[in-house]
Design goal:
globular; single chain; four-stranded antiparallel beta sheet
Amino acid sequence: MRRNIEHVGWSHLSYEIRQIVSVANELKELGVEITWENIGDPIQKGEKVPTWIKEIISDLILNDKTYGYVASQGVLETREFIAEKVNKRGSYQVTADDIYFFNGLGDAVAKIFGFLKREARVIGPSPAYSTHSSAEAAHSGYDHLTYTLDPDNNWMPDLCDLENKVKYNDSIAGMLLINPDNPTGAVYPKHILEKMVEISKKYRIFMICDEIYSNIVFNGAPNIHLSEVIKDVPGMALHGISKEYPWPGSRCGWIEVYNQDKYPVFKRYIKSLLNAKMLEVCSTSLPQYSIPLVMGDPRYKTHLEKRKKMFEYRANEAYEIFSKTDGICVKKPHGAFYMVVLFKEGVLNNNQSLPVNNPKVKKYIENKVKNVKADKRFVYYLLAATGICVVPLTGFYSTKEGFRITLLETDDKKRKWTWETITHSIKQYISTRA
């Protein structure tokens, strides 16, 4: 072609959570039965949406208004409903004009970074959620900038590392955090969030807080939102219904914007997101109409509490099984539905393997593990030997070696079998090191 049409940052678009599916599917063709532990889809793992929620959505389907366009910013009554919920937290007050709807948070993230000035960087956590890290790196054309989450401190942010990186890199215009965190399951206490707000204020940067799991908090962790500590710092919180109803296929998410009227540049940036949404006309109508009806129903609180207890039980069950295994380190999750299994330093090498009985599968995986990172090598062998598909921790923009599991399997026997099979495989894998 006469012109180079490649975007400068396209090579940074990486999503290991989905990419490993292609490997699993090829192994499936070779006869391996796959246990999918790679993606946070409650529906795929057997969770049922309550009948009363389905009935609300079914009634909406029969309403002609759900088939038409809505306002580009989102359904007004839904935005008013969300604003009222935010304001009941008692700190920062928003209006419907501070709420913006998108086709899922993936769409929101793409626009948040896609319409940010290329030279303006956003620093995020490591381990990182791939959607954020890839979008930020792609928009800039450089590797994603990160601060460390400390596994020795329950995966809390290393605030000294964060402040030093912000202080000495004036290209950093924003700070990203995920609370509760994916992939670690950490939940940040108020004093940690307040310190991050202080850093943002001191260095005049804005904040992005992904709160998609904010109503999945357990094991005594606090449920603190960015709106409760943001004060006069510009920022936004990201929310959605995919993990809560749960309805991941709805692709319905929104951002709550704080302090846009105090910062003209930030307000113009937020306006660019709305203008981009106008080019699409609007986000999907039906799920937006459902939010006041579902979240405003008295049964919704009971629904959330039931799910919290369910994930708390599974988190504690997973911790009990994995914490007894030599060579790894785990921290008990306090939110979301994930847990990181971290290999201790020096445990992995490029000579380890697991027995694979099928000759075709063995040949395939031996070719696949050439020149891959050590934790990915384990993940590939685990997949070939047992069919269990997990995600390597280095796939989350991390230098630490490990993998992420989910707490989603609804079949109690299968869930326990999965975790016990993984721990047995870890012991077997580590014992083969040369």
